[in-house]
Design goal:
By secondary structure, this protein is of the alpha/beta class. The strands form 2 sheets. A 7-stranded mixed beta sheet has the order 1-9-8-2-5-3-4, with helices on both faces. The chain has a two-stranded antiparallel sheet with strand order 6-7. Strand 8 and strand 9 form a beta hairpin. The N and C termini lie far apart (49 Å).
Length: 332
């Protein structure tokens, strides 16, 4: 019954927002976000706890950046903006049926597509590495329409009817879906066929093979899948960051994967590459904190001692802002 009610609620919301203009739909999204912030107490507590750890106490008036802290009121306001942002993302996804190739691409300003072209031109496929940042679903849809269809590694939703709906939206521009319970061999096959694959790597990875990385100042168990795929196949990595500009528009930044000193030791190199990519994700989260999924329990106590090895350096270098300043493509 609960899943049926979820399905009906989503269908009703989709029916409504597809009959409104962009501005009115965004207003509904913000209203839903504010209501969710008040009603979803557990998620609100998680977001506030995460923000307190990332931006500890500071005098009021400081803007969030890589070094400044935030007062409790500022953290609460930032958490509320995060809920509003992701409610707007849900509304934008429910409006996907209104988007054809022209209207979808018109909402997105691309920067760095030449890195995707160069990566695919090598003939080893390409790994698009992303996070739960901005509107990653719109970025994937737009990249498919822009000529870069991909195999998306996804976690299926708990509600099968909603999963089928989202899968239909995701595949509209030619993208292919692969659920996380499937073997990585499927991704390696696509890479060896010269195709692009996408892996989102910023959520908790509760597996004995996790790499524990210093993310936002705390150790976080992280999937080594992107590094493993790159090392095994030689496929270059391109990192993708969709940044909300307002009014339902996004700037999608595409950067070559950051370099890391490779030694030939597979475990060490997987960890080094995972650390380097996590640094880039943190850089953009610090710049646009309201666009990242703070309500996710990213930092959990490792379940096994094998998760305790951290490859993160003690001090991170400042990451470049522009895609053109990032160093070369990650290679195996």
């Amino acid at each position: 019954m609960r899943r049926t009610l979820e399905w009906l609620a989503v269908c009703l919301l989709g029916f409504v927002v597809r009959r409104l203009g962009d501005g009115a739909a965004a207003c509904i999204g913000r209203w839903i976000g504010r209501a969710a912030f008040r009603l979803l107490r557990r998620r609100r507590r998680v977001a506030l706890r995460n923000l307190e750890a990332a931006y500890p106490g500071a005098p009021s008036g400081l803007a969030p950046d890589a070094s400044a802290g935030l007062s409790p009121d500022e953290r609460r306001a930032l958490a509320r903006r995060t809920f509003e942002h992701f409610a707007c993302v849900v509304v934008e996804i429910l409006r996907f049926p209104l988007l054809d190739k022209e209207s979808c691409v018109s909402r997105v300003e691309f920067a760095g597509l030449e890195h995707m072209r160069a990566a695919l031109a090598e003939g080893k496929g390409a790994i698009f590495c992303a996070g739960h940042f901005g509107n990653w679903e719109l970025a994937a849809l737009a990249l498919g329409y822009a000529g870069f269809p991909m195999t998306m590694l996804t976690r299926p939703l708990d509600n099968p009817r909603l999963e089928r709906l989202l899968a239909c939206y995701r595949a509209a521009s030619g993208n292919r879906l692969l659920h996380k319970h499937a073997s990585l061999r499927h991704l390696m096959r696509d890479l060896r066929d010269g195709q692009a694959v996408t892996v989102v790597m910023d959520q908790h990875f509760g597996d004995a093979n996790a790499v524990v990385v210093n993310f936002m100042g705390r150790p976080a168990a992280t999937t080594p899948a992107v590094a493993l795929l790159s090392l095994k196949t030689g496929a270059p990595v391109v990192m993708v960051f969709p940044i909300a500009l307002g009014g339902g528009r996004y700037r999608v930044l595409c950067e070559p994967g950051p370099p890391a000193a490779l030694t030939g030791d597979r475990a060490h190199d997987e960890a080094a590459l995972t650390v380097a990519m996590t640094r880039r994700i943190e850089h953009y989260v610090r710049k646009h904190p309201e666009q990242w999924l703070w309500m996710h329990e990213r930092w959990r106590v490792p379940a096994r001692p094998s998760l305790g090895k951290s490859a993160a350096p003690e001090k991170e270098a400042e990451a470049p802002d522009k895609p053109s300043e990032a160093a070369g493509v990650v290679r195996g």
